[in-house]
Amino acid sequence: MSHTPVTLLRAAPGKPWLRIEGFVTPDELLRDYRTLLGSR
After folding, report:
1. Contact present, 37 and 26 (Cβ < 8 Å)
2. Do 39 and 31 contact (CB within 8 A), yes or no?
3. What is this structure's pTM?
4. What string of DSSP letters covers 6-35?
């Protein structure tokens, strides 16, 4: 099977999900998570 990797992040229950498609580096993932937490 060939499919695109997907990562889902959420700041807290009831908050919207952030969908990240494709491969990301640890630094990119941390940046996106920090941005997500800042938008609470």
Report:
1. no
2. no
3. 0.73
4. EEEEESSTTSPEEEEES---HHHHHHHHHH
CA distances, 28 to each of 7, 11, 22, 24, 40 (Å): 12, 16, 12, 6, 19
9: which 2 tokens? Answer: 């992040």
Domain ranges of the chain: 6-38
Cα 10 from Cα 39, distance rounded (Å) = 11
State pLDDT tens for residues 1-40. 788 999 999 999 999 999 999 999 999 999 999 999 986 5
Token couple for 18: 């952030």
